Amino acid sequence: MEKTLKITNVLSDPTRFNIYQYIVKEHHEVNVTEIAEAFDIHPNVARLHLSKLEDVKLINSFSQKTGKGGRPSRKYLLSDGVVELNFPHRDYKLLSTILIEAFINLGEEGRQALHETGRKYGTKVMEHYPSARLTDTLTMEQKITILNDAGTMLGMYPDFKYDAKTNSISFRIHNCPFKELATKNHTMICNMHNAFLKGMFDTLFTDVDLIEIENMFQGCENCSYVAKL
Q: At CA 29, angle to CA 171 and CA 223, rounded to 5?
């Protein structure tokens, strides 16, 4: 409870919360100068916000020599820790782990069921956007906006970009919402997540060929895809 209160207190500051969101989305090491410029605040204020986030282990920091002499530069990056706030306590991660292991024990039938369920819920999440069903009346820009909004709502922090020359949409997922579960069973979880994404795309387009380009569980910084329309 004490840890929970500390985290909620730190994130209650709007600027600090937005800085944390920025680090999650950018998914790279940042320094005080970058944060100060991004949020138009004094470097000392940026340093204070970063220190507060580090105090509750939301981010980590390390020193890096600049090669120009003087003091080493301080770099900050996202912690591997996960923030889970439930009142009262609910252990949904444990439940998810139990269910995933149950699917795995079912073999091929379990894999297929997980894949189909992922696609079903990818389609279902688009129900939050009634206009998504009116695909013939939507512009490409509107469809990209829906995909970005839905992906952000799901905690993926994606960036979808349309290429008219190839008639395709490329995108990166900066945060895997299933990372902790996928650490042990990433093949099965990633297949389910791919089906989930396919369900989202199939609501807006037809005959989409979704191709995985990079996978963060195979040493890449992010997961990236190309959807051929």
A: 25
82 Rama sector, left if φ>0, alpha if ψ -120 to 50, beta otherwise: beta
Stated as kind and residue range, the H or E segment containing 105 is helix 92-105
37/60 Cα distance (integer angstroms): 20
Structure tokens, 141: 């820009």
Any residues with CB less than 8 A from the CB of 179 and at least 6 apart, and which?
82
Going by DSSP bridges, is the β-strand pair 158-163/59-64 parallel, antiparallel, or unpaired? unpaired
Residue bearing tokens 């688009």: 126
- Amino acid of residue 94: L
pLDDT at 80 over 90: no
* 67 token code pair: 């090669």
- Sequence-separated (6 or more) residues with CB below 8 Å from residue 226: 168, 169, 170, 210, 211, 213
Within 10 A of 212 (CB to CB), how many other CB atoms are there? Answer: 15
The three-state (H, E, C) secondary structure of 35-55, written as one string: HHHHHCCCHHHHHHHHHHHHH
Q: Is 62 helix (H, G, I), strand (E, B) or coil?
A: strand
* 32 touches 45 (CB < 8 A): no
DSSP-assigned letter for residue 28: S
The 10s digit of each residue's pLDDT in 45-55 is 999 999 999 99
Query: Coil, strand or helix: which one is 193?
Result: helix
pLDDT of amino acid 2:
73
